[in-house]
Design brief:
The chain is of the alpha+beta class. The protein has six helices and four strands. It has helices at 14-38, 72-89, 93-107, 112-124, 130-139, 145-155; strands spanning 2-8, 46-52, 58-64, 162-164.
Length: 169
């Protein structure tokens, strides 16, 4: 099952990008805890948000889940319910602190390939700003559970998504 949530974005800056990185971790953690650990529906749910600059800046959030073919609709509904809960209530303290620590640690292990990718992005898409990438490191300190909730409210609408299921014949 793949679900895609999209949201146009006018202002891409370092703060948005830092929140996006933490949201990736929060959503993946939530889906793992609920769909895998509590319900046993899937072994490895994951989520990934990023800014797509082509043709217009858009935040795209993909959710990927494997599971039983006869449970695809139910799992999709569970994902939407978890997104709605995150928008309404934000992440738990445990979800936020774990996600923040993971992102903070990943920011300490940047390599040349990452820098090259960011420079290529700026060359290909003028809306991409390398200074925003560099600013993420400073802006991470301003990310908190409320800013993560705000990002989810603004960019992951639980009622508006595309759902694609690949089922066996």
């Amino acid at each position: 099952l793949t679900m895609l949530f999209t949201s146009p974005v006018a202002d891409i800056d370092a703060r948005l990008r830092a929140n996006l990185d933490v949201v990736n971790e929060v959503v993946t953690t939530r889906l793992t805890d609920v769909i895998r650990e509590q319900l046993g529906e899937s072994y490895s749910p994951s989520a990934f948000s990023f800014v797509n600059f082509d043709p217009d800046p858009t935040i795209e959030t993909y959710v990927f889940i494997t599971g039983a073919p006869d449970r695809v609709e139910a799992v999709g509904d569970l994902v939407a319910a978890q997104m709605a809960d995150l928008a309404a209530n934000g992440p738990t303290d445990r979800e936020f602190s774990g996600a923040f620590a993971t992102v903070e640690e990943s920011y300490n292990f940047i390599n040349n390939g990452t820098f090259i990718d960011e420079m290529i992005n700026q060359a290909v898409w003028p809306a991409a700003d390398f200074d925003d990438y560099l600013g993420e490191f400073d802006e991470l300190g301003g990310v908190n559970a409320d800013t993560v909730r705000g990002f989810i409210v603004d960019h992951i609408d639980a009622a508006e998504y595309v759902q694609i299921a690949v089922l066996p014949r």
